[in-house]
Specification:
Elements (H helix, E strand, L loop, with lengths): L9 H28 L14 H25 L10 H4 L6 H27 L14 H35 L14 H22 L3 H18 L5
Length: 234
Amino acid sequence: MKSTQPYQPLLFRILHGLTGLFVIAAILTAFWTYDTYDGRWGRIPLPSYKEIEGIHGTFGLYTLLIFPAFVLYAFHRGQKRLVQADSFAKLTQVGKPIWWYTLNRFTNTFALVALTFALFSGKMMDSGWLPRGELNHSWYYAHLIAWIVMVVAIALHLLMNARVGGVPLLLSMLNWRFRDKDSPTFWSAHLAQWWSSFQQGSWSNWFQSASVLTVLELAILISIAAAWIIPLFK
């Protein structure tokens, strides 16, 4: 276990923290919604609260709004935390530190994919299904599966980060101190620089140098866009 606390960029902490907060709230209210309207596979004695579905939907909406920004950060500024081109090769070095770091990258990537699945399946649902007792829609089952997958993804994410960085790594996400270069006063300049490079053709280079991460980022962003567009034609 590391004795010193690693430094996490401020913007990463904010985006990760907001996403994590909304996701956990959505997961908890999702189970309460299931417990209130369904309960076919077991339930706990939670109070029946008909408005809980709307609350769950609100947290899901908050997550969907912040998630694109987190995805862009994760696949660009934070791409070293995700799977790499040689990640599968490094999985052969079982038990070595690089093996644990590689597993951590896989779980981080898996969490992003799992959240995309949860958000997309949730947007495909109709808010009136559960109140009307319509429990056999395929998208409802998909969203239930997404809930289970998301719980597993978060558990693996926490366990693997604790394994490679220990308590100091986990606590570093709660530290609000930041270095001068991370000051919010520079964010607008960084955004302008990114937009300038985008206009100068970096987007075409993005396609030409397509990698596993590039394809995955594009798939997630398209899924997010589709989650907003498809319900408009229902």
